[in-house]
Specification:
Layout: E1 33-37, H1 49-62, E2 68-72, H2 80-85, E3 88-91, E4 94-97, E5 105-108, H3 116-124, E6 128-131, E7 141-145, H4 147-160, E8 166-169, H5 173-177, H6 181-196, E9 202-204, H7 210-223, E10 229-232, H8 238-247, E11 257-261, H9 264-269, E12 275-277, H10 281-297, E13 305-308, E14 312-313
Parallel strand pairs: 1-2, 1-5, 5-6, 6-7, 7-13, 8-9, 8-10, 10-11, 11-12
Antiparallel strand pairs: 3-4, 12-14
Helix pairs in contact: 1-10, 4-6, 7-8
Length: 340
């Protein structure tokens, strides 16, 4: 994938001079290419709409700096496309020296708490930055969303509307168990907020299929029929969640409120539109490229870490809590002994 068609990557199309922040002269061998490690997370191992927005955002942001983009779907450190990106080749069953690196630096996405790709980059001393973070990514630059803070904010928004039976719909069991940072951080933020408010947390893992969304609603209401709201970080299952609520006779937002962390296209395609914290893919992509360019041009500089905290956009999916009939204790009225 290229950031722009043709031309010398060290030259700005506008004036024929060096692209601002692009590869500097005399810095040794440069490929004028950035690597993007981004494993697809779609149901059929394809790229979701959100992932394509990040891929396009990185390519677009790299163009003014004079870089093209090489995409690898690697989610492990032994993926051949990742090793080739680093300039290695397979010899006698072992990866080793090859014909030279194919990229100047790597942007890593879908970061896990323990990520072998990041460990390999650190061992190689290969320049990289991350969209997402873990303890090893702290040694390089990163940009991330405050997923814990966003999940907490969603809970508190619902609590302000009177809800206290609030479920949490996370990503799939596979993603959660493999240590994906956003799934773990979102869970932690939800549990902390519920605990602080004195409410019982009820968290659920959910696949990305429409049927998975319907199924998780059935589980939520079977476990606690008095549930009146949920927070979701699984935008792909959102339509299924809405269908499941309708199937169980819960109208949104009259009977049941839904709030989440989701990109605008997902939040606005359901009816009623989802109240949600935005995932700013374009901004995150731009910041990641800026951090990568800084890293390449000033290798000894202190890495920058950028944590974004988007506000919740109020749409139409949340409302005042209406307790499920029979779920709350009947009010007690004093007995009056009145003689007529």
């Amino acid at each position: 994938m290229t950031g722009r068609p043709g031309g010398d990557p060290t030259t700005s199309p506008a004036d024929g001079g060096p692209a601002e922040g692009g590869p500097a002269e005399g810095e040794g061998h440069r490929t004028h290419t950035l690597g993007l490690l981004y494993p697809p997370s779609g149901r059929s191992r394809d790229y979701t709409t959100m992932q394509l927005a990040f891929v396009g955002g990185v390519a677009e942001a790299a163009t003014p700096y004079g870089y093209d983009v090489l995409l690898s779907p690697a989610d492990t450190d032994d993926d051949p496309s990742f090793r080739r990106m680093l300039g290695q080749r397979l010899m006698d069953g072992e990866w080793g020296g090859g014909d030279g690196r194919r990229v100047d630096g790597v942007i890593v996405m879908e970061i896990r708490r323990e990520d072998a790709r990041v460990e390999q980059l650190v061992r190689e001393g290969f320049p990289f930055v991350a969209i997402g973070r873990n303890h090893r990514a702290d040694e390089a630059g990163w940009v991330d969303l405050d997923f814990a803070g966003l999940a907490s904010g969603c809970v508190r928004h619902l609590a302000d509307l009177g809800h206290h039976r609030i479920a949490f719909v996370n990503r799939s069991e596979e993603l959660f168990n493999s240590g994906y940072g956003f799934a773990r951080l979102g869970h932690e933020g939800y549990v902390t907020a519920m605990t602080d408010l004195g409410h019982e947390p009820r968290a659920y893992l959910c696949g990305e299929a429409l049927a998975s969304g319907e199924e998780v609603v059935a589980r939520i209401l079977a476990d606690e029929p008095a549930t009146t709201s949920l927070v979701t970080m699984n935008e792909a299952a959102l339509e299924g969640v809405y269908r499941g609520l309708t199937r169980h006779g819960r109208a949104v937002p009259r009977d049941f409120s839904v709030v989440g962390v989701a990109a605008s296209p997902w939040a606005e395609q359901v009816t009623p539109q989802l109240t949600a914290a935005e995932i700013p893919a374009k901004e995150m992509s731009r910041v990641a490229v800026e951090l990568m360019v800084e890293r390449l041009r000033s290798p000894g500089s202190t890495p920058r870490h950028v944590l974004l905290k988007p506000l919740i956009t109020l749409r139409s999916s949340t409302g005042r809590c209406r307790p499920v009939p029979g779920s709350e204790p009947e009010p007690e009225f004093p007995d009056f002994d009145v003689d007529f």
